[in-house]
Amino acid sequence: MTVVLGIETSCDETGVGIVVDGELRANAIASSVELHARYGGVVPEVASRAHVEAMLPTIRRACLDAGLALTDLDAVAVTEGPGLAGALLVGVAAAKALAAGLGVPLFGVHHLAAHVAVDTLEHGPLPEGTIGLLVSGGHSSLVDVRDVAAPVVLGETLDDAAGEAFDKVARLLGLGFPGGPIVDRVARDGSADAIAFPRGMAGDGTYDFSFSGLKTAVARWIAAQADVPVADVAASFQEAVADVLTQKAVAACVDRGADTLVIGGGVAANSRLRALAAERCETAGVRLRVPRPGLCTDNGAMVAALGHLLVARGAAPSPPDVGARSTFPLPH
Ligand code: KG4
Ligand code: ZN
Question: Which of 8, 12, 30, 56 has minimal Cβ neighbours within 10 Å of its Cβ?
Fold first, then answer.
């Protein structure tokens, strides 16, 4: 039996997951999102302090949920980066202390690789040559998942991340923070083709994205209205994002002969993105894999999942001086 505990603290979620022999056994999460809501975005110092407070209770919760003791752990994995420096430091320090105290190996993992790896908990090993679409609050990338621990970037956003665009449009519409889930909900009552918002860089032959033009177009459109049809704006904006993301992701699969697309990151929880990806993948003969929404947003299970894959393949643990890497680019 191989027991791996994973710690995630790159943003505002203190996540602790436990994976046993490739199976998810616990996924405890404490979120400081409500503390940030009044500021309209994550405040790094507030997030770091909340991680310090939540860390031990969340580890305890995960062990209770899994029915395991800390002494049952075979390895500890932690998000090394990218993310908020202070927030990451809390997780890395806790993971180091835990691994050193228990005398077990420590694996520092890449946050985006973990967003891909979490899918293996639900759908098994990823076939070679899988393409990954990683869409979160800080990133929007298309990757070649030839190595699940180190995906290679095929293209990425040149400005805002998809999640950032959702959060900004939610703010423009006065919907609160974090905006993604609220826009998703509000959009259900709107029409996706009510307003023709621009599809930045669509069909340009690259795998890169741009969402800042879309955000500006939404802001201008709203400013020109006396009475803003909130649901229609949400639905039309969401459609523009889902359209360009799925177009490029499916094109990457077809161009590169990949038969599987995996979508990960907080925006992968978006209902329209999931539905449009399913439709377009089916047409193109590509198998779509998306974790359930609760595993798309930041959590500890994704870190434990990637840590477990590394242990299973006999990978070398991280060196004892492993640190937090707030910027941590993936290879191109
Ligand atoms: O992966 P994640 O939890 O944290 C980062 O690594 O950034 O992603 C957070 C982002 C936020 O921008 C949030 O608004 C967005 O994911 N998000 C969504 C949905 N749920 C979360 N965006 C669109 N639709 C959703 N249902
Ligand atoms: Zn994330």
Answer: 56
Q: What is the pLDDT of residues 66-110, one digit of tens each?
A: 999 999 999 999 999 999 999 999 999 999 999 999 999 999 999
Of all helices (H) and strands (E), which one includes residue 94? Answer: helix 85-102
Q: Do 273 and 247 form a contact (C-beta atoms < 8 A)?
A: no
Same domain, 61 and 135: no
Do residues 198 and 186 make contact, with C-beta atoms less than 8 angstroms apart? Answer: no
CA of 140 to the centre of ligand 1 (A): 11
CATH number (domain holding residue 132):
3.30.420.40
Nearest atom, ligand 1, residue 170 CA: 14
Does one domain contain both 216 and 303? no
Is 179 a domain residue? yes
Considering the entire predicted model, what is its pTM? Answer: 0.97
Are the C-beta atoms of residues 91 and 7 closer than 8 Å to each other?
yes
Asked whether residue 203 falls in the same domain as residue 236, the answer is yes
Residues with CB under 6 A from ligand 1: 11, 136-138, 163, 166-167, 178-181, 184, 265-267, 269-270, 297-298
